[in-house]
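Forum: Protein Structure Q&A
Topic: Joint prediction for protein chains with partners

I've read a bunch of threads here and the consensus seems to be that you should model interacting components together rather than docking separate models afterwards. I'd like to see that in practice. Below is the full input, 807 residues plus whatever partners are listed. Could one of the regulars post the assembled result?
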Amino acid sequence: MEVLVILVPLALGLGLAGLLAFLWSLKSGQYDDLDGAAWRAIADDEPPQEPQPDVTVR
Amino acid sequence: MQATRDFSYYVKDLGSGLSHIDLAVEGVNCAGCISKIERGLSAIPDVTLARVNLTDRRVALEWKQGTLDPARFIDRLAELGYKAYPFEKASAETTEAEQSRFLLRCLGVAAFATMNVMMLSIPVWSGNVSDMLPEQRDFFHWLSALIALPAAAYAGQPFFRSAYRALRAGGVNMDVPIAIGVTLALGMSVVETINHAEHAYFDAAIMLLTFLLVGRYLDQNMRRKTRAVAGNLAALKAETAAKFVGADEISEVPVAAIHPGDIVLLRPGERCAVDGTVIEGRSEIDQSLITGETLYVAAEQGTAVYAGSLNISGTLRVRVAAASEATLLSEITRLLDNALQARSRYMRLADRASRLYAPLVHATALLTVLGWVLAGASWHDAIVTGIAVLIITCPCALGLAIPTVQTVASGAMFKSGVLLNAGDAIERLAEADHVIFDKTGTLTLPELEVVNAADIPANIFALAGQLALSSHHPVAVAIAQASGATSPLIGVVEEPGQGVRGTIDGVEARLGRPSFCGAEQVAEDDAMADPEASIVVFSRGEDRYLFAVRQGLRPDARMVIAALKQRNIMLEILSGDREPAVRAAASALGISEWRAGVTPADKIARIEVLKRRGFKVLMVGDGMNDAPSLAAAHVSMSPISAAHLSQATADLVFLGKPLAPVVAAIDLSRTALHLMRQNLWLAVGYNFLAVPIAISGIVTPLIAAAAMSGSSILVMLNALRARSARGEVGAARADSNSASDPALRGGRT
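Posted by a regular:
Agreed with the consensus. Here's the joint model:
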């Protein structure tokens, strides 16, 4: 049972870390646009490539 | 006179050399739109941030101060295919967003605490039936206390505050039993832990808060979202006024930036955005949005004009008046104030339930304590049992029963084009059994339409349309639109108040008043047949063609009226318009009960009569003259095209041309009310099962936790059923999309 001395603080610490992460994400506005966030996940990151200038030497 | 657009009113200075503006954008609904808009705007040099918010349909922009004109963003968005307009966040919106965040923070804390306390409780529950040492149990209980007490103190704030407010006002709301239950449960658990007892209720108390916060957050978020959408719609109306900034120089300024005393220019075909007095010019104005009267009124120097009036023929200069100067408005405001004061304060279902529930629960707990003492138990045991009764009856599911249904129902209403202004509107709408419609702008559309389009040869119609394109007169606009003409004739001359003339293939053609086109006699005969329509004549050489133009009924008005009758709802029209016009609309729709030429005071009187007879009146109206009766009715609805005052007063606002949202809203609200009641009974039923166990003193924290989460989940699942209304809403909604039947438009043949 001595293992509780390590496990209990560890479990609580992890939980607390989760809570702090949640509060941080709330503060940084990550819950302001839930619909948009759902779509952004599947949006293309890179803008479409500009057509490459023709570099072949004539 | 060169008009410039000035949006500086909306630009916020962020300091550090950056400016910020928020734009409401129409038509953003997918991932493609997000990246298209963000890339398109970021491509403008000196833009430092372009971020779309899809939930609120808005774009936030930041740029280096002084380098860009905000009008450029709006032009750029127009190029990309989106209509956008800046808006100013209403202060209420900011407060609600703040409140929403606070509740989410509380919910996060409560959920964290619940999970961790549960982690400590489950070993205790299993240890109690096996080999746990009392010291270990005490240790776990103390740890639970360490988590639960501060968490409850923080996350319980919304309930404690509200309960305190209610008690101070001498009333009881749902939060009072919640606050008492949570406090007692925590207090008893601490005492029990000190006494090395087997059971502590930290988990029950904190879990209760978590579930209740879910309900509270859903409720708040629903309100926040509808307010944001309503704010967008208001902004996208893009109301500007041409303000004189110099002797002969005008600038397009947002209405919010106009002050009393400013002089604005009102051109033909424009809707006035301010209240004021004409100081120069002569014209006719259409005041149907204010009075319901469809006949034009002459305007000249000294005439008062109101926001919402449509300028017909001449250009006017208007001096903006302070709110109190306008006489018509002050009369309506007085009536509105009276109506709002007289509005019997409606008892929400939740409040009615808690008013019954709280004393019952507290009495049961008290009787349990006394009963056990009389039966010979110790005070300590009796009080512990009494508190267990309070915990088990704590209105966890009761707190979720109504907000979950409201959230789901308001989402469904939103999809059918109805926005909620008031939280309890769903409950009140469900009870409505008598509908009063305003005519102008509610049963009819605000735009004019050509009634006899079918009688006019297509080539003549097209020519008339080309001629009409040169004029801003609303009738000309209606003809141009109906004809589908796109290329205006060259060299067309407009004679104000008369019509337009031009030359087609060497022959003079005219479009305008019958007298202008030499056709008084024919037009007079025709006007007898339909007194409501304005007759416009198109002449070419010796040929004369008559166009009858009037406000048409909403495309699905007749079907909606039939659907309402089917639901045994009484119908009535109260209009400020003239008798023939109202009679025509009433007979076209098959409504037998109607009154014409009704003043705002008369409308209120009629509603009072119906109220005394026991009817729950739904008022549907758009005009400023309807605002007082919208407030006086049991529940009220406005179309989005309504006057500001009416829209703000109405409990619900519906979008678009069809009238079908009215039926959809009634059906959805009836389903919702039914589900709310069902949920309340479900929650109470759970308590009926659990209370005897609690009274008999054999309840354990495990039973409390199971009862609480079980009933909450059941109630939430039941609420999801509010997504679809029973009955024929689906059919009604499909109708609204179908092409309108010409027979329904009251057209002449």
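Residues 54-58 of chain A have pLDDT under 50 and may be disordered.
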